[in-house]
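Hi R.,

Here's the input for the nicotinamide-adenine-dinucleotide complex you asked about:
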Amino acid sequence: MKVTIFGTGYVGLVTGTCLADMGHHVMCVDIDEQKITNLRNGVIPIYEPGLESLVKTNVANGQLCFTASAEEGVAHAEIQFIAVGTPPDEDGSADLKYVLAVARSIASHMQSHKVIVNKSTVPVGTADKVSALVSQVLAARSSTLGFDVVSNPEFLKEGAAVNDCMKPDRIVIGSQSAHAISVMKELYAPFNRNHDRMIVMDVRSSELTKYAANCMLATKISFMNEMANLAERLGADIEQVRLGIGSDPRIGYHFIYPGCGYGGSCFPKDVQALIQTADSIGFDSAILKAVETINERQKSVLVNRVQQHFGADLHGKTFALWGLSFKPNTDDMREAPARVVMEALWLAGAKVQAFDPEAMEETQRIYGQRADLVLCGTKEAALKDADALIICTEWKNFRAPDFDSLKQTLRHAVIFDGRNLYDPDVVRRYGFTYYAIGRGDSI
Ligand code: NAD
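And here is the predicted structure with nicotinamide-adenine-dinucleotide in place:
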């Protein structure tokens, strides 16, 4: 089948590439001309395991192509995906300007029936808005062309996006049009061979499903962080508690890790957007508000510890920082806890020597040149002449460091671990003062 995808970010590029790899003919459209030129030259704008080679193979095979021309994209296929950003507006609600701009563009250029598929995360009611806009533009063109608007939220995880897209847990389709549902079933048939992963529902339920999923995951994290803060004050170890509760199959071991807060482009904005949706209909969403408040508080936990240890004024102090991306296996730093940590350290006068396996360029792009930030080529280089080590992201590469040499390199044998990577007994045996999250006697 022929498919067009508007937006070649994490979702659009990965979805387009995976659809192409299954044999569809995919055209990816982006308004960022530099990005399109780069992609045509084999320069992939994001780090995502497995993506680069898949893009290159499918471009070489003629299954995947890129354009900055919306007109060309609209002409290419009946199926038109919208996979552009939906950043938070000033009040936290999802800003639909990019989604509606694509809808307008499709309506302006279409010369035949289109199935418009909304893959961006959008508030309940957005499909209706897209429909109304497309109808309005078609009416202004005196056109009687038909179209369907489908909701097909994306559940991929950054860092495992290709795998998630190739083997989705579920494919949610929100539509009541028999034609659109059959087109979507045919499109996703290659991903559906092992067992039926398709869940077809009405559009509004589909739109809410995406928010409910992300808000549930964010709630799990904030709940565990709340327990970690309690554990710390009660002399308990949250890692023991985690194992104790995870063994209950109703709870499970997944996604119950305490830490220095969640970040990324999705959880913070989606929790805020659902709070806004609730507020806009006069419903006070007490759980979601607490989830957000707890997360904001959690991002300050590490720096509070640093200041308890070294004092509020950190002038003259240097900290090695391991992990900048909001989670491992990505270079995405949107809303990353490491940014809150770094900025708070700078505010208190400290210097940061940072290392991340993938997010160094992104850090440079965000912060530019500054005297209080040194980007280091290895995790070991970041330790040199640093007063202590702070860990913000749980990259595999950080899990088993050489503690002897770490101790010799740091000025003080102190580790602030925002991801509970180490066994406190082992680290203390090496002679470190070890601060982790929710581990009893660590404060
Ligand atoms: P992104 O910011 O990485 O990419 C968006 C792309 O859209 C950019 O390249 C931008 O230039 C392009 N764009 C903007 N306006 C355009 C237009 N008019 N025409 C063509 N291209 C245009 O965003 P993302 O992370 O891929 O997220 C996209 C959507 O998917 C969001 O709603 C997000 O919430 C949702 N989502 C994201 C993830 C994730 O892990 N990143 C997962 C699931 C869902």
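One thing worth noting: The CA atoms of residues 389 and 415 lie 5 Å apart.

Cheers,
M.
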